[in-house]
Specification:
- The protein is built from 13 helices and 15 strands.
- With 403 residues, it is an alpha/beta fold.
- It folds into two domains: 116 residues, Alpha-Beta Complex (Aspartate Aminotransferase, domain 1), CATH 3.90.1150.10; 248 residues, Type I PLP-dependent aspartate aminotransferase-like (Major domain) (Aspartate Aminotransferase, domain 2, 3-Layer(aba) Sandwich), CATH 3.40.640.
- Strand 11 and strand 12 form a beta hairpin.
- Keywords: Aminotransferase, Transferase.
- GO terms for molecular function: pyridoxal phosphate binding; transaminase activity.
- Its cofactor is pyridoxal 5'-phosphate.
Length: 403
């Protein structure tokens, strides 16, 4: 049921082995101090707040939703699994309980073995978002986010939903889009969620990259929605757009990417109360979030403004480096989206595999686009410290010069 994930198999061990890491998309800091210290460097010397609140309350307040709308998870991957499984279960249960013309339910008639639920997943996209729903028995269909902007078009989703072979469980999107960095506004998410709801399903938004903005307003403004990149805007969390609180919408977030705390494996999902309660029942089947990680994560919320500002500066500087690099290269096509420290780029003379292999031979890690369904290019991610990323881009430029 759960096939090997080609991207995760490929990337394993490479960031540590690479001399220059342009593959890791989380905002990583150089490790310091005792490597056996369980407290991440960013949280050392900081204390948890003394207000007696829970981490669940902290997350709920950040997203402007109630506690009953939040489930803490062991990272975003765990959250995505729970969301896919809960959506599939709800789709099956809704179908099995639906009355038929003869007064029976499908469960009465066929023993609960109705048609498999379906998921609509964006294309291009991140491999686990396709394979995880398949692993829980959901039939997966795709809809395209067309280039070059790779925007989210609710009409395309509606067209694809009409052709499904079974009940819709969920529509899955990333925001920022992985691998291009495209960002969509809350109004577009709301329109897409309405399409999902019209077909009996949920919109599932992976938002681990949504806070990747360089500041407030300016070129980070999202035209056409109610998010403008400011920390106090409606529909905003950690400075980026969120679908949390929208009808029929489930979001996935974590402390791994923007906050650089991947070792804690702390994540969450938000959604309608009934959905969260069903996800809790799914959680009984798999390991849950560890209490020490919860305690350490509370330290982030005690100093949230300071730590978010530091992450935003890190993101802004790396975005500027990547945008400047692309502007200076006549042999690369693509775009670096406003505020994004990662992008999908294509070389004029070599496809994604050739570029990635040549880079790896020179000690530079970039990710082939084939893992996202885009074979012609590579995803270039600036997650390391800006000085390290500047050196990595120089090395990558020498690789490109030799192609």
């Amino acid at each position: 049921m759960f096939p090997p994930l080609a991207y995760l198999q490929w990337i394993e061990g490479r960031p540590a082995a690479a001399e220059h890491d342009l593959g890791s998309s989380d905002l990583r800091r150089p490790p310091d101090g005792d490597p056996d210290d369980p407290v991440p460097p960013r949280l050392r010397g900081r204390s948890a707040p003394s207000d007696g609140r829970s981490l669940r309350e902290d997350v709920a307040d950040e997203y402007g939703v109630g506690e009953a709308n939040v489930l803490l998870t062991a990272g975003a991957t765990h959250g995505g699994f729970l969301a896919c499984a809960a959506a599939a279960a709800l789709a099956r249960e809704h179908h099995d309980d639906a009355p038929r013309d003869d007064g029976q339910t499908p469960a009465d008639a066929v023993g609960g073995n109705g048609p498999r639920p379906c998921a609509l997943v964006e294309m291009p996209g991140y491999e686990p978002l396709v394979e995880t729903p398949r692993g829980v028995g959901t039939r997966v269909a795709r809809f395209r986010r067309p280039g070059p902007e790779h925007g989210l078009d609710p009409e395309r989703v509606a067209t694809a939903a009409r052709d499904l072979a079974g009940p819709l469980a969920h529509v899955t999107v990333t925001n920022r889009h992985n691998p291009t960095g495209a960002l969509v506004d809350r109004a577009t998410l709301a329109a897409t969620a309405e399409v999902a709801a019209d077909h009996g399903g949920y919109l599932l938004v992976d938002e681990v990259y949504a806070p990747y903005t360089g500041g407030t307003g300016g070129n980070d403004a999202i035209v056409g929605g109610d998010v403008r990149g400011s920390d106090d805007a409606p529909g905003d969390a950690f400075g980026g757009p969120t679908g949390a609180g929208l009808p029929a919408t489930v979001t996935v977030g974590s402390l791994t990417k923007f906050h650089g705390l991947g070792g804690l494996r702390v994540g969450w999902i938000t959604g309608p109360e009934a959905f969260i309660e069903r996800a809790r029942l799914v959680e009984h089947h798999v390991p849950a979030l560890a209490a020490p990680s919860v305690a350490l994560a509370r330290r982030l919320f005690a100093d949230l403004d300071d730590l978010v500002a530091d992450a935003r500066d890190h993101c802004r500087r790396n975005h500027e480096l990547l945008a400047g690099f692309l502007a200076d290269r006549d042999d690369l096509g693509g775009s670096v989206e406003p505020g994004s420290p990662f992008a999908y780029l294509e070389h004029e003379r070599a496809d994604g595999d050739a570029v990635s292999e040549a880079a790896w031979d020179a000690g530079v890690l970039v990710v082939p686009g084939r893992f996202f369904g885009m074979r012609e290019g590579v995803r270039v991610s600036l997650g390391r410290a800006p000085d390290d990323c500047e050196a990595a881009l120089e090395a990558f430029g020498r690789v490109l010069d030799g192609l």
